[in-house]
Amino acid sequence: MSIVRIDAINVRNIRKISVYPSERINLICGPNGSGKSSFLEAIYLLALGKSFRTHQIQKVVTSGADTLIVFAECVSKHGLPVSLGIERGTSITRLRVNGSSVGAVSELAQLLPVQLINPDSHHLIEMGPRYRRKFVDWGMFHVEQEFFPIWSRFNQALRQRNAALRKGSEDSEIMVWHGEMSHCAHRISDLRSTYISELLPLASRITKKLLGTGELDIRFSPGWSTDEQYHIYLERSTKLDRSLGYTRQGPHRADLNINIAGVPAKDQLSRGEQKMLATSLRLSQIELLREKTGQTCVLLVDDLPSELDSERRSRLIGHLVDLACQVFITATEKELLAERLEIIDKVFHVEHGNIKEMI
Ligand SMILES: Nc1ncnc2c1ncn2[C@@H]1O[C@H](COP(=O)(O)OP(=O)(O)OP(=O)(O)O)[C@@H](O)[C@H]1O
Ligand SMILES: [Mg+2]
Predict the structure, then answer these.
(1) Domain segments of the chain: what residues?
(2) Distance from C-alpha of 73 to C-alpha of 97, rounded to nearest angstrom
(3) Distance from the CA of 22 to the center of ligand 1, in angstroms?
(4) CB count, 10 Å around CB of 31?
(5) Which of 182, 142, 187 is nearest to 285 (CA)?
(6) The whole model's pTM is what?
(7) d(Cα 22, Cα 327) in Å, to the nearest integer?
(8) Order of strands, edge to edge, in the sheet holding 67-75?
(9) DSSP tag of 336
(10) 8 A C-beta contact, residue 131 and residue 124
(11) Least reliable range by pLDDT among 18-27, 252-261, 296-305, 315-324
């Protein structure tokens, strides 16, 4: 899917804009505070129903306004027109696909896969496991139709078990969830682990090209010791979990061990190198998505130059050209991408929340 036209109303300092991007590489330039990230935030909101900067939607809605609106005309992988719309405020979420209301953000997300690379990208390498679970589950959601329902089933049973643990319920009321949790946990782990093994060759190739260091290895860790079946683990740990008031281990604690040349990436790579590795991993997800489903992704690269030297910037931009998907890159000045300016299809200038195409 790619975006042909996007309108945004009341997204941070953007009052009202209408933009006709290129289906390939778009560069959004403007001074600090002009609204570049806000523009990307609008696209992200449309695809995922939430901001990448905050969980509080009122912070994203322009001060003094009640709701924000983002609307886009897109073209599907089969060349068909698709329109998507979202209106959000503190007590309102309205979602539309082709003019009809839809109930779940997942319906928009399924149609418009979006990947984000920004100055926080190194979190994927450096921070806690939830960043890496989100990474794997992005792929799961878009590539493996079975995943989302089974993940929802697991979470529902997990919430019930945790509630029973906290209430001090009888063992039988806790154990009643073990069968469902175990069935889902094993399937979730199989799907995630297969996804990672399919991703690894692509990720290794891109990492070598962009980062240029030793061999990448990614080990999937399912969240509990798979020496035993999950229901056996749950039974064995009921007493301890009861004292904690939650289920300590399981697919909700899964993680990835990401190594370069056998050493954990988080322990050896610089901030810029971590950003480049995280970028390589996300780019490999985009390629795998296309390989497996034929779907193209919209890629948002907020503040591309940050943390990257000119050689790495140039390699990254070169790769974005080969990727053949719609890309939105922001930078304070277009000269920061001077090494490869010729590959940018459209340049937009942002100032005080207004965006204009540069001819
Ligand atoms: N809810 C809001 N209502 C109105 N303006 C807001 C709101 N939230 C943030 N802003 C303002 O929007 C402006 C644009 O912010 P944004 O992060 O998009 O800038 P940017 O162009 O990405 O800047 P930088 O180059 O520093 O990354 C900022 O000046 C910010 O103060
Ligand atoms: Mg910004």
Answers:
(1) 1-113+295-359, 127-291
(2) 10
(3) 24
(4) 13
(5) 142
(6) 0.95
(7) 9
(8) 14-19, 2-11, 67-75, 81-89, 92-97, 100-102
(9) G
(10) yes
(11) 315-324
Does residue 64 have its Cβ closer than 6 Å to ligand 1? no
12 ligand 1 Cβ < 6 A: yes
Average pLDDT, the chain: 95
Under CATH, to which class is 1-113+295-359 assigned?
A: alpha beta
Q: Which ligand has the nearest atom to the CA of 302?
A: 2
Q: How far is the CA of 250 from the centre of ligand 2 (A)?
A: 37
Distance 64 CA to ligand 1 centre (A): 15
The pLDDT assigned to 184 comes to: 97
**How much distance in Å is there from the Cα of 1 to the middle of ligand 1?**
28
Joined together, the tokens standing for residue 293 give 């489903």
Is it the case that residue 334 has pLDDT exceeding 90? Answer: no
- Cα separation, 86 vs 241, in Å, equals 41
Q: Please provide the DSSP assignment of 243-264 as one string.
A: HHTS--SSGGG-EEEEEETTEE
Nearest ligand 1 atom to the CA of 39 is 18
- C-alpha angle with apex 318: 314 to 324, nearest 5 degrees? 150
What's the mean pLDDT in 136-156? 94
Q: Where are the beta strands (DSSP E) in the chain?
A: 2-11, 14-19, 25-29, 67-75, 81-89, 92-97, 100-102, 114-117, 216-221, 255-260, 263-264, 298-301, 326-331, 346-351, 354-358
Residue 335: its pLDDT value, please?
80
Q: Could you give phi then psi for residue 77, rounded to 5 degrees? A: -65, -20
- Determine if ligand 1 sits within 6 Å of the CB of residue 306: no
Give the Å distance between the CA of 112 and the centre of ligand 1.
Answer: 25
Residue 63 CB less than 6 A away from ligand 1: yes
CA atoms within 13 A on the CB side of 279: 32
CA neighbor of 334 nearest in space, from 316, 319, 347? 347
How confident is the model at residue 62, as a pLDDT? 98
Q: What residue's CA is closest to ligand 1, atom 18?
A: 35
Question: What CATH class does 127-291 carry?
Answer: mainly alpha
Which residues lie at CB < 5 A from ion ligand 2? 36-37
Please state, in angstroms and rounded to a whole number, the distance separating the CA atoms of residues 118 and 304: 7
